[in-house]
Amino acid sequence: MRTAGVLDAVRGLGLHDHVCWPYDDPADFRRRAVEFLADGLALGQRAWYVADSDDEVMRGHLDELPGAAEALERGALQLHPIGETYRSGQVVTPADQVAAYAAATDQALADGYTGLRVAAEATPMVRTEASLEAFCRYEHQVDRYMAGRPFAAMCAYDRHELSEEAIGNLACMHPASGPDAAPFRLYATSASEVALAGELDLDSRERFPAALRRAGLRPIGGELVLDASELDFIDHRALFALAREGLRTGSEVVLRTALSSAARLVELLGVPGVRVEAA
Amino acid sequence: MRTGAARDHVGYFHETAFYRDDDDFLALVVPFLEEGLRAGEPTLVACGAANERLLRAALSDVRGVTFLPGADQYARPTEAILNYRRMFADHAAAGVAQIRVIGDVPHPGTGAPWDWWARYEAAANRVFGEFPLWGLCPYDLRTTPAEVVDDVLRTHPHVARPDGQHLANPGFDPFGRWPAWRPHPLQSRPPRVELLDPSPAEARRAVERVCDGVALGEDERDDIVYAASEAVTNGLCHGKPPVRLRVWADAARVVVAVTDGGPGPEDPLVGLVPTEDSASGGLGLWIAHRTCRDVAMTHDEEGYTIRFTAGVL
After folding, report:
1. B287 contacts in A (CB within 8 Å)?
2. Are A260 and B222 in contact (CB < 8 Å)?
3. Neighbour-count burial of A165, counting CB atoms closer than 10 A to its CB (0-12 exposed, 13-18 middle, 19+ buried)
4. Is B180 within a domain?
5. How far is CA A249 from CA A161, A238, B230, in A?
6. Does any CB of chain A come closer than 8 Å to the CB of residue B218?
7. Do B287 and A260 touch (CB under 8 A)?
8. Is A268 on the interface with B (CB under 8 A)?
9. In chain A, whose CA is at the least distance from the CA of B222?
10. pTM of this prediction exceeds 0.90
11. Shared domain check, B129 and B20
């Protein structure tokens, strides 16, 4: 089971977890990255620290990580300047980037680790509209990979550099995020299953259809099944967004939720192509 | 060809009538129905139980009359519009020259909230305008409050009299003003909650907290939370600041009022019919009209207010 929801700390995350961590204070980010990587090392994962700095500076960021020098020495902990990790340059190519992390995960497994864990300061990857769009798509694709393979990541973004809107667009593609990042989350629960959690209202009027489009959900057997057991509120606009997604993918959308209001709205409005099942 | 007073009329011939006793009621309605039956026109009756009994006893032959239980047909204006439009469309598709309907529209004298029925009576001229329809809405002066009579006179272009006359109504001005505001009894007390410029999520949580102490069914609770969320959303998107949420409650009911500083929706049909136009926010209000016990709107010095009730009225 992956960790999902709004978190106030990054401690204790598992082999498949994927957390978005927007931050105001770089020192706060570094402290959390150290915690996240230390947990990974304790779980036997190879740990990567990815940031827009040189080795010397990045090494300094990890001073507080117990056994950092020794872990760096034996290759359990690795420093990766961001330009080297995201080789495709300013605009990420989602499939290529997922493949690169898949290869790194396989290598970590081959080297005797339980998987790979990355703490990345990814702000440089989303500074333009085009790169942000591509990265949002990538976030969902890599999320699917992580749900099925022992790869965990903490994606940190600088609130001083990015708009609240950009942060929200990124955060909603993660199963877990820090406080005040996004009102809903669309994420993978396995390599083929997707979950929808949180609240879908005015705040999501544009972001939710965009997130659906960016996720590029693929129907299975004519159905697009969403595990919405952690969904707290959905308005009719979001239900119609799901209906459009069903139309676009030629499938019936199945929303599995405990919210009886969702079923009533679908019935009242005759939302086409959406079936609500009790979760 | 259409028959009777609506002979040369195109579209909806919307007529009211007032009566003070059963004889007057029958003098108004029996000829209306019998003329329709003789002409072979679809003839519908959606009256309260007492008036339906009177009509069944007075008509020489009720075959050909479609009796719709008034309490069902007039459960709420959105459903009345949906059901009537479905029936009228079927008759129109069959090529009938005229459809006749007589209906008892609910009001406080019969135990129902009036605001949304006043807006229904005003909207009816448009929402049924495409049908060759003669609708007679008789009101019983023994039970109808004076301000309801005012709204009825404003919203009906035609008036029938028990002596058989059919007159044009010089006071017809359906959208001249909104119905008179009747504060809910709970509104005489200070609200349990008052929020200034809440987000829709904050509004939902505030209403949920108030609902916790009230005997409401799960659906009733969901419905008023949804209505509050939509009203705040509309206030933020289409109204003007400040947006105020106020919630009153006692053991058996919850009243939510959302006020914004703007002029309110322009279209008096808002909430009574679904609008495709997402800019109007009309679908959210339509949902509220289909789920809450009462929806009322007013315009005053604070701006535009919409009010919803859950639980007992």
Report:
1. 236, 265, 268-269
2. yes
3. exposed
4. no
5. 36, 16, 29
6. yes
7. no
8. yes
9. A261
10. yes
11. yes
Q: What DSSP element (H or E) covers B54?
A: helix B49-58
pLDDT in tens, chain B (313 residues): 899 999 999 999 999 999 999 999 999 999 999 999 999 999 999 999 999 999 999 998 999 999 999 889 999 999 999 999 999 999 999 999 999 999 999 999 999 999 999 999 999 999 999 999 999 999 999 999 999 999 999 999 999 999 999 999 999 998 877 888 899 999 999 999 999 999 999 999 999 999 999 999 999 999 999 999 999 999 999 999 999 999 999 999 999 999 999 999 888 788 999 876 555 567 999 999 999 999 999 998 999 999 999 999 8
Boundary of a domain, candidates B135, B168, B201? B168
Do B132 and B209 lie in one domain? The reply is no
- Residue B126: both structure tokens together: 């448009």
Under an 8 A CB cutoff, do B226 and A235 touch?
Answer: yes
Residue B217 sits in the same domain as residue B291: yes
Closest approach of A202 to chain B, Cα-based (Å) = 6
B226, B237, B274: residue with CB nearest A261: B226
Q: How far is B278 from chain A (nearest CA, A)?
A: 9
The domains found in chain A, sorted by start residue, are 1-182 (3.40.50.300), 183-279 (3.30.750.24)
- Inform me whether the C-beta atom of residue A260 falls under 8 Å from chain B C-beta atoms: yes
Residue B201 placed within a domain:
yes
Q: Are B233 and A233 a contacting pair at CB < 8 A?
A: no
Q: How many domains does chain B have?
A: 2
CATH code for the domain of B231:
3.30.565.10
Per DSSP, the residues of A126-187 read GSSHHHHHHHHHHHHHHHHHHHHSSEEEEEEEETTTS-HHHHHHHHTTSSEE-TTS-SEEEE
The answer to whether B150 and B13 have CB atoms below 8 angstroms apart is: no
ipTM rounded to 2 decimals: 0.91
Nearest to A201 among B229, B278, B290 (CB): B229
